[in-house]
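Milestone M4 deliverable, item 7.
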Amino acid sequence: MNIAVVDDDAGDLAIAVDLLREYVDIDCPQADIHIATFAGGENLLKDFEADKYDLIVLDIYMKGISGMETAKAIRKVDAEVAIIFLTSSEEHILEGYRVYATGYFIKPLAENKEEFTETLDHIFPRLRERRKAICLCIEGAEYRVPYRDILYVDIRDIRKPCFHLYGRVLLSSMSYEKCRDTLLKDSRFLECHHRIIANMDCVESMEQDDFLLKDGTRIPISRRKRQDVKIAYMNHLLGL
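Output delivered:
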C-alpha cells in the first residue's frame, strides 16, 4: 500500500508521518506500506499518476497551489485514490465533497490523535480491499490481477478460466475450481451461473435473467440460483 503525505509545514508533515507509522505498527503490523512525503502540491503532481497511491493525506492551506486545487488536479487523473485533508479550519469541508474527500484531520494533529486513529480505522479496511489481487500464470509468466479490474470469469471451450477485464481477456492455466475457491472468499464475487463468476462491484443492474455489467456486457443468471443471487446482490448493495 502506498501513501503520500503533502504539507509545506515541515513540522506538521513530520507529525502526520509519525502518526501514520505508529498506526501501521500497532494496527497493521503485517502490512507492506510505503509512505512518500511532499513539501507542496506541485511536488506531488510532478510525481503523480493514476493508481500510484492508495491514500493521499493533503494539507489544504499551502503556499503555491492549495490542497483543494491539488485534489481537483488529482481527480482528473485518478478517480479512486482516497484523499484525506489536513486543515486547521472546517470551512472547506463542504467543498471537499466535490473532490470526493474521504475525511479530514484537524490540526494540530497531536491534539486530535483519537480522531486521526478513528478515521484510519474507517479507511484502512477499504484500502486493503482495493489492493487485493489474484496471481495468474499465463503462458509461463505470472500476472497480478487486482480484483477490482475483474468484470467476470467464465470457461471457454478449452476448459480454462477466462478473466474478463475492462478492454481485455486473460486466459489462465489455473483450474476453474481453484479460481472459484480463491475469488469466492471475497464478498464482491458471486457464482451467478454454472462456471460464471461475477464481480458485483462491476454490475450496473440486475435484470430478470442476467446481470448488466458496467461495460455493457450481459452475463446470465442461473434460474436455479436466481433467488440466492438476488439476495446476495441486494446484500452487497447494502454493504451487508
